[in-house]
Amino acid sequence: MSIQVNTSSSASTALRNLAASQSSLAQPTVALSGGIRDRVVTDTVEFDGKVSQVATENKIAASTPLRDGEMAAQMSKHTQENILAQPGVAMSAQANQSNSDVLQLLEPARK
Questions:
Q1: How far is CA 69 from CA 46, 63, 66, in A?
Q2: Which helix (H) or strand (E) holds 94?
Q3: Average pLDDT for residues 57-85, to the nearest whole number?
């Protein structure tokens, strides 16, 4: 494209043509920058979602050993209480059996 500016009329025409060319070139640039902006926003949202997911997974992974430790402590406490209660139950059973034996010995004497 050649531009001639010998006269004021040709200079005005050249300016109009230049403005039209500049405008037509700017539209794809705006569309391209809008597409890039949309992609950056999409990538940012996806990244934020992944960060949130990883943070949740890390939180769960960190709390699991704590819960496992609490469960082990509770089981240990329960086992200890059970072991401590067994002699008492055995003594009660023995005492009841002794009373029953005495009653059986006295039973023939009643008849």
A1: 35, 10, 5
A2: helix 8-110
A3: 85
Exposed/middle/buried for residue 82 (C-beta within 10 Å: 0-12, 13-18, 19+)? exposed
Instruction: Report how far residue 62's alpha carbon sits from residue 73's, in angstroms, rounded to the nearest whole number.
Output: 18
Quick one: which H or E segment has residue 66? Answer: helix 8-110
Task: Answer whether residue 30 shows pLDDT above 60.
Answer: no
Please, which residues have CB within 8 angstroms of residue 1's CB and are 6 or more apart in sequence? 17
- What are the CA-CA distances from residue 73 to residues 62, 66, 85 (Å)? 18, 11, 18
d(CA 110, CA 102): 13
User: Which pLDDT belongs to residue 31?
Assistant: 58
Q: Residue 33: what pLDDT?
A: 64
Phi, psi of 5 (to 5 degrees): -125, 40
Query: Quick check: 17 and 3 in contact, CB under 8 A?
Result: yes
